[in-house]
Model the fold of this input.
Amino acid sequence: MIKNLHSRRGFLKGTALATGGILLSLQLPDAGRTRAALAASGPSPFVPNAFVKIDDQGVTLIMPHTEVGQGIYTSSAMMMAEELELDLDQVKVEAAPPDMSKYMDPNLYDQATGGSMSTRSDWMRLRQAAAAARIMMVSAAAARWKVDPSTLKVERGIIRNPAASQQLTYAEIAPDAATQPVPKDIKLKAPSQFRLIGTRAKRVDTAAKVNGSVLYGIDIRQPGMKIATLALAPVKGGKVASMDEAACRATPGVLDIVKSGDDAVAVIGEHMWAAKQGLEALALTWDNGVNGKVTLDTIVAKMDEASKTQGVVIRNDKNAQAAIDKAATKLSAVYQSPFLSHSPLEPLNCTLHIRADGAELWVGTQVPVRAQKAVADATGLAPEKVVVHNQLMGGAFGRRLDIDSIEIAAKLLKDIRYPVKMVWTREQDMTHDYYRPYYYDRVAAGLDASGKLVGRTHRVTGSSIYARWAAAAFKNGIDPDAVDGAAETPYDEDAVFTDYVRQEPDGMNTSWWRGVGPTHNVFVIESFVDEMAAASKQDPLEFRRKMLSRNPRALAVLNLAAEKAGWGQKLAAGHGRGISLQFAFGSYLAHILEIEVGKDNMIRLLRSVIAVDCGITINPDTVLAQMQGGMIFGLSAAMFNRITLTDGAVDQTNFDTYRVMRINEVPKIEVYQIHNNEAPGGVGEAATAAAAGALANAIFAATGNRIRSLPLADALGA
Amino acid sequence: MKTLVINGVSHQVEAPDDMPLLWVLRDILGMTGTKYGCGIAQCGACTVHLGDEAVRACQTTMDMIDSQPITTIEGAAANSIGAKVQAAWLEKEVVQCGYCQSGQIMSAIALLSSNPKPSDAEIDDAMAGNICRCGTYVRIREAIHAAASA
Ligand code: FES
Ligand code: FES
Done:
């Protein structure tokens, strides 16, 4: 998602650092240990680099990216086990501790998991790290046997010398390997040599997830731990007006009331029930402050106004406006995409044990270094005094890229010396999200007499997430995410004008939401392309095909989806098919959705056909799972979801008012993959971005009704 | 003090009458397999069995429980249908983040216990109370069919 900000060279530099510099620096302490120290403490683990640890307990792979359900632990382990000549049943995986010097994502410039970047960032460095470890162990075995390393064979972690029937396990040779030089030129396997990459290997994290033994952040228990729940000002900037502390303290099981500033209060209890009851007894009232009159309408009115003036120019090729002015057919439209909540099923939570001289934090976070800093800042402790135990996450979808919940917990608990698990209620979670921004898009296009697109303009108006989240990436007023997919489309087009107007909403925090920039821009572009086809009486598929002469991979996924979906075959009355095509997150994806719109305007999703080219595939079942899940996530939002405000407070408080798609509402989903050995593309968010456009276009095909504002079920009035 | 029989084991629990079983399990007994997702009977993450019935632990208060045995995800494998469902879940790689899956599995076991060969529509009916934010529904359906024919 920061792809505009650095060159491919920067990426290569990053990987060189991760495999060369780190290897070496980690190598030295082990090599320098004395025999006496070794004897005293037993064999030390072989830690050739930041990602591999081998000791008598076996092989542990350190995961630079966090597991939110997307399957990255499995894919990362597969990449490493491939080069280590191990199978997945022979490795353990472990979350990386916060350490920017070792685990920074070279494309995100942070130790962060997001932007469907993990596999793209780790494809080289994890295989290199694993290969380096293998090479060092093989060299150590060769040295012990006094043979040429190239004569040795490795299989399932056993090094063999075929000439002399000798063998050593990794665990046996690991202590020797620590003294081997770190290899400089690491030759990685060619795809034709892969035995694990590309297979449907079983996930490494799921056995414990079907028997209740898995621990998420919310399941942490520590000796003496108490449980707290909090209330935040319902309106941003609001302050506590009154509370009944006596009534709260009189509630059975309530232990303490803690406050931070004027806008956050938590009750600590023996258990969540006591804390919740106590919080209710507190009967908080609030002064709403400056945002007390904000509604969704007031926010949108300001966006509409702001969008009337030109913003920062993103792309300006060949005077698009002049081309449109001269065009035979002119189109213009406004598209609107709502605020959305992440609402992962595991509500926000973290467990803190703050002491005078240090702190421990148990949390599922996509940004462990930021999490550590949040606790350090709130408590005054040095960051290295804050131990972060990163946990599996019950979903994130971008929500856990922010550390507001950790910061608030640390501020609330800074004077409490026993461990406390801070659990947000669903209501607090949903009403205090960092929401997917509302976007207001003005688009225009011109077609010549033959129906060819001759010029297009697109003004994106909305919040800049980068400006808050990574200010260094917000340069010259350009938010590269807000316009991702607006300036560059898969199509042949020369005359394009795109600009960006930053407009921050009153009273709302905004952040990354699965699918990020493309989720909104692909909806707008693909809906508008459909409008162009309709305005020039062309078939939406043919119209797109004609504009893909320079983009063979996009054309290939489009053709595949069209063939599988039976494009052109007659549909029953009330049925419609819609297309969405994109290049996003490094992957090509075409989606054709078939729906039925009933007489009552009820939308039924029938069949979702996805064709994807994500380059080389680590685990095809993970790609399939992400396509299925990502599509449902996107369709759920496109059908039902928007966050609204009344008097500055969010109206949607739980899943009764923020509807999530259920099993009886999902379409049949078919996924077709184009296999090749191109660099891997991201898959976690791609399908989400392909949902809304196809749905809007299918509704148009079924009803003739062009809907330009999400969610679609609302807009149809069903 | 009340005796709860959970997964075949008796526990003496001191808890207020209006306290939901969800928090008794999680915070008093330390059985964290049963999850909190909404607290208002919308998501199904807290599904357990009370007797033979799938119930929402967030809505089942202490005073609603008599002597019925309680089964949670931690005890699901003790029953042959439960073991089949868990195996099918792994076989079909249903799980993503996994947070909803305790509840999904407990709902699926209750379904298969009363209806050994459910149709798609019957699966939809029985499982519509369980939200999966990761969108694993397609595989949940496949896994229930697989467990039914295992
Ligand atoms: S927590 Fe009980 S149904 Fe959601
Ligand atoms: S697997 Fe994540 S909520 Fe269902």
Summary: The CA atoms of residues 76 and 82 of chain B lie 5 Å apart.
